[in-house]
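Progress narrative, Year 2. Work on Ferrous iron transport protein A from Sphingomonas adhaesiva advanced from sequence curation to structure prediction during this period.
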Amino acid sequence: MTLETLPRHQRAAVDMIEWERLAVPEARRLRELGFDQGVPVEVLHRARMGSGPIACRIGRMTVALRRAVARSIRVSTAALPAE
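Result:
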């Protein structure tokens, strides 16, 4: 499942990021925000328009991601880190 298709308010962990699908600035931004394998993530809000951004929580931060970027982030609900 990708971050784009993760249901709202369901916690998951980043399984893998398809870095090759991202432009260099996008990949750099994800790394700076702390996106990496095993990091907990949760979708908080989706824009009403089908192509709008997705707001998600990573750690204690809330960030907005373009849907194309969210499509490159694979997540798993089975591998959640302990709280």
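The chain has one domain: 11-76. The first strand starts at residue 11 and ends at 17.
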